[in-house]
């Protein structure tokens, strides 16, 4: 077999890595606490195999991509594009770096180094020790955006925090006395349930659980239900409330007891301390990489004021409520806005 001396252009390199990133996105909502990873295998400028990490505990992207190559004899003359440094340790599956070494691929392009201490450069070193050329930081920023939950988890030692609420055109989220009112439209509700299906957990406070009686599930979208997180200091939320129904794991942070009752975990907190950092640390210890904070205003505003958020989604309805509960105030970080039906979606990022 003749040696493959095909040289890829910068445009091709970026295009193949973008394809790998697009494949990685297909794992959204199914791979946590693992990162989303895509892999593309290229021979003489043409894709001969591709794959992505499809579900936690299943084969990684590199394994699926190698298996997709019909003529395995081409692998030693092929370039591999992978969105995250190949793992170098045994976990649910064997090390992907070992697989690439076994097939003696020509070159490996990597989008991001893995921040997980179990990997953290060891995968790259294993490839280089085997004589495989490694080129890293290809579309690095796009990779960090894709796996922002994963990077936040390891770098900040807390879940990635998404704030979300809907408000009327006059800045209210509920009627007086916290009575619920339908603000968002059907499209925004479906969007919300898609968001829930892609994140690990969803958090509300006592009043939201009492007055809205939310199920916090994904009934308007296909996908898993997030772990439900309730902050209920004095255990005021009734046991037959929707937030406790079903079998979805539910964590209730309170000042009274620690107890496990079926799918419900009661976690007692120290009353004199600030709860939010402690709750985020507990979620981190439970390997929950992302949490949506859906209300109410006091909980959302406490996250904003403490700088404990990463992105926020603010839905604004054209209807006016008049007297009612004022929505949270977020004045910085707006990155875009768009109209969805008769609602307006404003998106914020703390990085902005």
Brief account:
With 352 residues, the protein is an alpha/beta fold.
Explain what the structure shows.
This protein is α/β, with parallel strands linked by helices and 352 residues long. It has two domains: 10-153, 3-Layer(aba) Sandwich (Cytidine Deaminase, domain 2), CATH 3.40.140; 157-349, Dihydrofolate Reductase, subunit A, CATH 3.40.430. 27% of the residues lie in helices and 26% in strands. The chain has helices at residues 10-25, 61-68, 96-102, 122-129, 140-146, 148-156, 186-198, 206-212, 275-285, 297-306; strands at residues 38-43, 46-52, 79-84, 107-112, 133-135, 160-167, 172-174, 201-205, 227-231, 250-254, 259-261, 264-268, 290-295, 311-316, 325-326, 334-340, 343-349. Strands 11-12-10-9-8-13-6-14-17-16 form a ten-stranded mixed β-sheet, with helices on both faces. The protein has a five-stranded mixed β-sheet with strand order 2-1-3-4-5, with helices on both faces. The chain is elongated. The mean pLDDT is 93. Pathway: Cofactor biosynthesis; riboflavin biosynthesis; 5-amino-6-(D-ribitylamino)uracil from GTP: step 3/4; Cofactor biosynthesis; riboflavin biosynthesis; 5-amino-6-(D-ribitylamino)uracil from GTP: step 2/4. Pfam families: dCMP_cyt_deam_1, RibD_C. GO terms for molecular function: 5-amino-6-(5-phosphoribosylamino)uracil reductase activity; diaminohydroxyphosphoribosylaminopyrimidine deaminase activity. InterPro entries: APOBEC/CMP_deaminase_Zn-bd (IPR016192), CMP_dCMP_dom (IPR002125), Cytidine_deaminase-like (IPR016193), DHFR-like_dom_sf (IPR024072), Eubact_RibD (IPR004794), RibDG_C (IPR002734), Riboflavin_Biosynth_HTPR (IPR050765). Converts 2,5-diamino-6-(ribosylamino)-4(3h)-pyrimidinone 5'-phosphate into 5-amino-6-(ribosylamino)-2,4(1h,3h)-pyrimidinedione 5'-phosphate.
